[in-house]
Amino acid sequence: MDKSSAIINQSFTQTQCMTKITRESVDEMLKLFENKDMEKILSLFSENAVLYDPHYPEIEMVGKAAIRRGFEFAFAGIKKTNFNIIRFWSDEQGIATEVDTYHLFNNGREIKLQQVFLVEFQNGLISRMRSFVPYPPHGIGGFLPKVIRIIWKLTGKIKKG
Hints:
Layout: H1 3-12, H2 23-34, H3 38-42, E1 45-52, E2 60-62, H4 64-77, E3 78-90, E4 94-105, E5 110-122, E6 125-132, H5 139-155
Parallel strand pairs: 1-6
Antiparallel strand pairs: 1-2, 3-4, 4-5, 5-6
Helix pairs in contact: 1-2
């Protein structure tokens, strides 16, 4: 078992009585996203987890299938990404962390932004995760998800109005 898996399993398993999530375990979780490790990332979420992020075509993703679609969208367009934790708080129910985020898109464009993630856990798995940004997405970063959101609504991928 690699270091990442060991730390994630130590902090996020269902069988362990979780008392507090550590900054190190969240760093490792973010590394999974940076490495585009879809299956390991999804294994951290409960079946009915809710992921809310304004950067995705489906802003509120409910359940693993919707979360997978969102991550597939992100992974398809991002060449490289990096998260650097600035501030971190945790207790037995979840975490709040402020991060510097860097994305290098496949077309060569770069974006740097700060985000706050609130993450709640139940039975050792992520049950709710929400991203807060200091602005509404703008430029191509806001336009493309809006267009795809309309397409997804028209094709039935998003069931809500």
